[in-house]
Amino acid sequence: MPRPSCPRCQRPLRHCLCALIPELDSRTRVLILQHPSEVDHALNTARLAALGLRNAELRVGEVFEDLPQLLAQPDYRACLLFPGEESVALSAYAPADKPLLLVVPDGTWRKARKLLYLNPVLAALPRVSLGTVAPSRYRLRKAPQEGALSTIEAIAAALDVLEAPQRFDALLRPFDVLIEGQIAAMGQDVFIRNHQR
C-alpha cells in the first residue's frame, strides 16, 4: 500500500515541505519543461521551483505541441536557459528591459538535449547561461561537469542575476531540507563513504 503523500509537494505526508515553500514574485516568467522520467524522482526540484514562484509554470512531456503558443507572450522575450558556445551570460535587467520568459528544460543532460531535439521551436530560441556560479548544494549527486546545478538552483541563480538586488535564496529552503533529509535517511557513514570524495 503506498504511503499517503501531500497532493501539493508530492512528498510523503510526514515529510511534507509545503511550510517551507515560499510564494515569490518575479518579473521573469519561468517555464519549466520537465522530462517525464523526472516526475517521480525523489527530489523533483523542478516541482519545488514551480511551487515557490508565482510567475512560473511546470509542464511535463517530451513533445510540447502547444509550445509556440506558450512562447508567444507579448509581455516577455523568450529564451532558453542552456549552456553552450552560442549562449549569452545573463545580466541584470535595465529599467526599460522587457522581462524574459525563461524556458528551463528539466532532466539529465541527455534528456534535456532530447527535449531540444524533439521540439525544434525550443532549440531555435536564443540561449542564455549563468556564467560563474557557486558550487551546487546538491551534495547527493556528483556534478557531471564544473558549474552543473540542479534545476531549482539554476532557476534561483538566474533570477538572482536578472532581478538583482532582489534575492531568491528562499526558493532553496525546501531543497536544502530535502537534501538533509536524504542524508539523514542514508546515515552519515554511508553519505561520507559514497558522496564525500
TrEMBL record:
InterPro entries: DTW, DTWD2/TAPT. Pfam families: DTW (PF03942). It comes from the Bacteria. One of its GO terms (molecular function) is tRNA-uridine aminocarboxypropyltransferase activity. GO terms for biological process: tRNA processing. Residues 2-187 form the DTW domain. SMART domains: DTW. Its EC number is 2.5.1.25. Keywords: S-adenosyl-L-methionine, Transferase, tRNA processing. Belongs to the TDD superfamily. DTWD2 family. This is tRNA-uridine aminocarboxypropyltransferase. It comes from Ectopseudomonas guguanensis.
